[in-house]
Amino acid sequence: MRLERTLWLVIFLTPALGLMVVFTVLPAVTALGYSLYSWTSFNREAFVGLENFRKLFSFPFQSDFLRALGHNLLAFVGLMVVQNGVGLLLAYALWRQPPFFKFFRATVFLPVILSLVVVGFLWLLFLDPLIGPLTKAANALGIASFAPLGDPRYALLTLMLVNAWRWVGFPALVFLAGMNNISEEYFEAARLDGATEGQVFRRIMLPLLAPAFTIIVLLTFIGAMEWFELPYVMAGVSGNPDKATDTLGLMFYRMAFGAASEATSNVGVAAAISVILFVIVGVGSALGSRVLRSREVEL
User: pTM of this prediction?
Assistant: First the structure.
């Protein structure tokens, strides 16, 4: 019996483990190997050990690397506040089952199923300084120079808001599932004790939503640190304007494959960026998971 059970476990786990090895473990090991060699274009040369990491943390790469890392961290904080905060409020509104509940639930989740590339190009049209409907609306309100993607002060915030619009339905449904999993007896007991709806939300619902928060926080962290598609589509590989929207993903792409303003590539430094990014995501996710799971409440 035990042998048969083990055999079935091997049969079902082997495809998933195989995919993990092919698409996660091998690329990570390969990137680590690439980072230990010097490169001329895509031709591997001598073994240099940690020299590419030293280059990354010295002139001229250090400032770009730290700026890009800072943008990734700002994206994580911004998306946690805006995207997941709005998602939580939407989930609570849907949990109260308003009229047309099913319509609103589908509408909230609809942007998630759209291609991120399509979303990026659509918002580029909306924000176009000449023909964009949002630009025309801003001009009608007296804002003559409305060009958020062209202003280094607002470009990153604009990308975060677009990203939040696209993804807000996902945390909303995760939180909604968590709310539906909480027994009504907890809320009834609190109301009998005189708790207001606000107190029920803060003191009863939020602590019991800890498992949902764990999932959302970890996925938001991973997504923010690996942020690439939307900045690439809306701001270009150089993180325009003036690298105000640069991220580690964009910097890796520029170093590995070059850009319009950079005719050459540096595969060794690019591989070093990917290794550091892999470590940040892995360690951050592990620590975050441990801390957040310790705060979960058993139902």
Answer: 0.91
